[in-house]
Specification:
The protein has two helices and 21 strands. It is mainly β.
Length: about 280
């Protein structure tokens, strides 16, 4: 299953000392909004791919005197990541934090499961690294300041995070899922967005067409069209890409030199011919 390029995630060992700053008012602060979205999971058999996060920590750049990670939120929240596709996001945290540049974020995942549409439920084992925190690099670093609206988008790549075991074409063929969380961080208010509609030769909407953004012969991210043939892809770094449109029963088409600009929306429609 094709999905976004994974930003490197390292696991902290459980024995690593954790620090919590309590009741210390910073001299300067700004607000940081963290949103969660999902790189789509292209299967008609899965109803839910859920994660529960109970702690968010963040690492300030060049802060050698303070703790390696500062607790940003300890609110426990659960998300069905399949609800967070085609431009849909959920607010993970929105609070004030000391002004400065931040280069890493750490998520503590305490539960995960997959539920099929026939109600079969697979409770997933949380890897040891996820138990002590998923470390996600923010590159470039994000600036938080009282004069800026800082917004970070975390793209939880379901297709790489929930790896099906067995035959994914039938419910009986699915034996379980391996959970290996993969997350990409993007500065949302500096990234671009791609949207459009995919139709056939008779201008009928095509549902479930895969839209893949390709950089240097590698899939950077992808999405799938809805019933009305529309798609939306968020959090794309500014640059020039190839965009491929594909669907079983149709000839795939690729559009080259698609420019994505920071803070702007690019509209790109496509027509697929039957094979």
């Amino acid at each position: 299953m094709i999905s976004v390029v994974a930003i490197a995630i390292a696991a902290f060992t459980a024995c690593q000392e954790e620090y919590v700053i309590e009741e210390i008012a910073p001299t300067k602060s700004g607000n940081l909004l963290i949103r969660l979205t999902d790189a789509p999971f292209p299967t008609d058999l899965v109803a839910e791919a859920s994660v529960t996060i109970n702690k968010i920590e963040i690492h300030k750049m060049d802060d050698e005197q303070g703790p390696p990670f500062i607790v940003f939120s300890e609110e426990e929240q659960s998300f069905n990541l399949l609800d967070l596709t085609n431009g849909v996001t959920a607010i993970l945290a929105d609070t004030a934090i000391e002004s400065g540049f931040y280069k890493e974020i750490r998520l503590q995942v305490v539960d995960a499961y997959v539920k099929l549409k026939d109600s079969t439920l697979f409770d997933l084992k949380i890897p040891s690294g996820a138990q002590s925190g998923l470390k996600v690099k923010i590159n470039p670093s994000i600036e938080v300041d009282s004069a800026l609206n800082a917004e970070l988008l975390l793209d939880f790549d379901v297709s790489k995070s929930f790896v099906v075991q067995g035959n994914p074409n039938t419910p009986a063929g699915i034996k379980g899922f391996n959970f290996n969380p993969v997350v990409k961080a993007t500065i949302a208010n500096a990234a671009g967005k791609l949207k459009g509609t995919v139709t056939d030769a008779n201008d009928n909407a095509i549902e479930g067409a895969q839209v893949s953004i390709i950089a240097a012969d590698t899939v950077y991210t992808s999405s799938f069209t809805k019933e009305n043939g529309k798609y939306v892809i968020l959090g794309i770094d500014a640059g020039v890409y190839e965009v491929e449109f594909a669907k079983d029963g149709y000839a795939a088409t690729t559009i080259e030199d698609v420019e994505i600009k920071a803070k702007e929306t690019t509209t790109l429609d496509a027509q697929l011919d039957s094979e």
